[in-house]
Amino acid sequence: MPTVTAIEPQQHDAERVNVYLDGKFAFGTSLLLAVSHHLVTGKELSPSEVDELRHDDVIDRTAGAALNFLSFRPRSRREIEQYLRRKGVEPPVAAEVMARLERLGLIDDREFARFWVENRQTFRPRGARALKAEMRQKGLDGEVIEDVLETLPDEVETAYRAGEKKARSLRNEDEREFLRKLLGFLQRRGFPYGVAVEAAKQLRAEMTQQDLETDLTGE
User: Fold this and answer.
1) Would strands 24-30 and 13-21 be described as parallel, antiparallel, or unpaired?
2) Of 164, 168, 88, which is closest to residue 125 (Cα–Cα)?
3) How high does pLDDT run on average in the chain?
4) Each residue of 157-172: pLDDT tens digit?
5) pLDDT computed for residue 212 by the predictor
6) Residue 18, CB-side half-sphere exposure with 13 Å CA sphere
7) What is the 3-state secondary structure (H, E, C) of 9-70?
């Protein structure tokens, strides 16, 4: 059986080492795997042990890439699977990596759905219809989507918040154009017609009142 003749740190990655068998470079692996497999000079490795080390290293590096992908924001199961496919990861390796992430609690579509809705509500309010379409694109289960959407506040309130900035930009439009443009804006964001109408009328009434008060006070 081949014998480990040297274990040298890699020049550009202190967390990885190069392993030499019988005086020749054999493979690279993480320092953690080298320790966990008790690699030391003079140790003999069977072909199956070498294959196992190489396989474990592929899993570790792929899991590391997936963790980096997850570091920017939570992801749905489908998003992670699509990411691994884009990286050309073989299906058996991808399955092992997904299983590892699941054991670590890093794949949870219900938690992802909550994150997605809360993020939208905070930064870019959407109607339930638009949110449902977005979450379907992320591969979320219909039951999960419906459960999370049940926690949404009143849609008129959400539509009101979604339309505030747009309404300010339409302040100088006459009432008909104001309502037409704001209705279109809100409907494109997934709000039903009736909800959009109610929110748009509220916004118009408030702006009219503000303009009246400004005229009276001269401020």
Assistant:
1) antiparallel
2) 164
3) 91
4) 999 999 999 999 998 8
5) 61
6) 11
7) EECCEEEEEEEEECCEEEEEEEHHHHHHCCCCCCCECCHHHHHHHHHHHHHHHHHHHHHHHH
Question: Which residue in 161, 159, 160, 178 sits closest to 169, CA to CA?
Answer: 178
Outline where DSSP puts E strands in the chain: 4-10, 13-21, 24-30
Please state the rounded mean pLDDT for residues 68-73: 93
Q: Which residue reads 């900035």 in tokens?
A: 165
| Tally of residues, the chain | 219
- Give the Cα separation of 81 and 170 in Å (integer): 43
19 φψ region: left (φ > 0), alpha (ψ -120 to 50), beta (else): beta
The confidence score (pLDDT) of residue 153 equals 85
Name the token pair of 34: 């080298």
Cα–Cα distance measured from residue 69 to residue 13, given in angstroms and rounded to the nearest whole number: 20
